[in-house]
Amino acid sequence: MNFVDFISFSDPTLQKALLGSLFISICAALVGVFTYYQKKSLVGDAVAHSVFPGICMAFIISGTKNPIFLLLGAFIAGWLSIISFDFLLRDKRIKSDAALASVLSVFFGLGILLLNHIQNGGNANQIGLQHFLMGNVAAMSSQDVMTYGLISSFVSLVIILFFPVFKLISFNKDFAHSKGYKVKSIQFLFSSLIVICIAIGINAVGVILMAALLITPASSARWWSNKLERIAILAVLFSVISATIGAYISFSYARMPAGPWMVIILSVIALLSILFSYPKGVIYGMLRRRKAQEKMLVENVLKSFYHIEEREGEELISAVQLANTRSYDGAKLSLALRKLKKRSLVLVSGQNYQLSKEGRAEAKRIIRLHRLWELYLGSKLNFKKDHVHNDAEAIEHIITPEIEKQLIEELGEPEIGLHNDKIPLR
Amino acid sequence: MQSDKLISVHNLSVAYERKTALWSVDFDIPQGVICGVIGPNGSGKSTLLKTIMGLVPPVGGNVKIFDSNLKHVRSRISYVPQRESVDWEFPSSVLDVVLMGRYNPKNLFKRTTKLDKEIALNSLEKVGMLSYKDRQIGQLSGGQQQRVFLARALAQQADLYILDEPFVGIDASTEEAILAVLTELKEQGKSVIIVHHDIHTCSRYFDYIVLLNTRLVAHGWKDEVLTPENLKEAYGSQLTILSEVANELSKSASPIREKSYDDK
Q1: How far is A373 from chain B (nearest CA, A)?
Q2: What is the pTM assigned to this prediction?
Q3: Are the beta carbons of B108 and A180 separated by less than 8 Å?
Q4: ipTM score here?
Q5: What burial class does residue A175 get, using C-beta atoms within 10 Å of its C-beta: 0-12 exposed, 13-18 middle, 19+ buried?
Q6: pLDDT digits (tens, 9 = 90+) for B84-140
Q7: Which chain B positions have a beta carbon within 8 Å of A168's beta carbon?
């Protein structure tokens, strides 16, 4: 029922809420990509808090909630906060975190003071100013949505047009300067875009959550790609998803605000990105580590087979014999044996196991790599003889055929290892 | 009138982050050389390059490049900043970074063209990095990163190449690759200026040398400059009075030169 209404997009409140949050969040995502990569995320948060007194001042002076006046007030206060921040930083003893914290708290405190003053003043128009604290898209008038929509489309357009320039400056400012770019002007432009974007964005989520709208899309997108252009597109996509779901929730449930829901959805997307993205994600990383450990285990068991053959001269080997060579954990040993059987590297005969032809070749390969590496460390890099074994235990599992070739070239087809053991031929 | 001067620096003084970095430096560099700017740590080498490139304003004095002001000849110069000056975790591929050499400050909205891409690929080939073109820059070794920076400079197709400490923290093969590229540039009649701190490799790398230690110690062809007396003067520590005065200036927030007469 709700869903059908939502899809049909006929309700005027919904239209406003959805359009408003879409415009605002797309703009915030695009500005946020460069805010993130210029390492200005916290500056974004400080500016967001700092625009609040500007809005209150604009209201006190104009006496109306006309969006143009309020925006102008926010813009001026936002810029003042950036200037104060830069001014504080000129003193080398003040670090940027301290400077940001001071600017944020002084400006925001002033804003709360002004808000109290206004609320006690009895101007009937003031109802709704507190929406700027937590945001409320539904409370926006159609005129507000129009104005903010236009401005945020303009900001988005500027970001897209200047994309290569912003990219260049985010990566290497000195180089851009040396090419003759007017770096200061471009940074002034970008800072202005941040301030405008924030001044608009607080309508949706309020000053307190604004930094999330700005930074979360970019910081989620960076898990998925190593290309700035793709990161920007993904950030916009994430914002569209969160704005749509946020608007749907606030439309379907009474007294559910869209803004905080947008931030929650964005946070969920961020969490999912951290966990499930490929190949940087946490879970993929865990899988990879597990796979590597399994490979090591299987290869070590294979080696144990070969060592027993070499030492005792018998091919039929029991699990107990294997377990004794390296004190394997029982469960792990049977896991390794299962894997080896599956790959036909080990054959079963009754209670005992024996290497297949392929298994023996594979075991030889690993031991060969082990002894080549020991020889390389000992003879070429002058490692102490009694230090090389442990290194080789780890390295034998990761040496590629290319590296093996290089080792052989370096060592000249050796047959005898560092500990006078035989290096098996291929 | 065409002269054979690549750069002439006249009475140049620079204060960087409130500390005097260069005292009244005068020298010329001829065209078509590989010139090393040499000196110990904190001797103002990088500051000199930054001043030449207009990144740091001088307190007094001036610099002429190709007998002209920097702003008229910017497009003929390419600058390679120190490798550590950027964040290599930035989401870009090798080719992306080299293409930045093709960006044009006169047209901010222009995207790179097919021709730009060809030039960029060609530059990557010259530094032996073509097979890495799609690699994320964060995955490169220090030497590879330096080669990417050099390729970006080559893509600018300039007449003068200015490199800040390109030989720091690189492998032997990168050193060879860089030297080969520089030699080729010289053969084409281009000029190269390199900031370098290691005196042992100087005579192998450079033809012409500017020896600094916050003031000019010597400049000229390498055999004239690399004398034991000059090196002792630059790398020894008898500059204590000058640095003490610099400290006093910084403490009292005084200018190192009265605003004056000579800047034209």
Answers
A1: 23
A2: 0.86
A3: no
A4: 0.89
A5: buried
A6: 999 999 999 999 999 999 999 988 888 899 999 999 999 999 999 999 999 999 999
A7: 100, 103
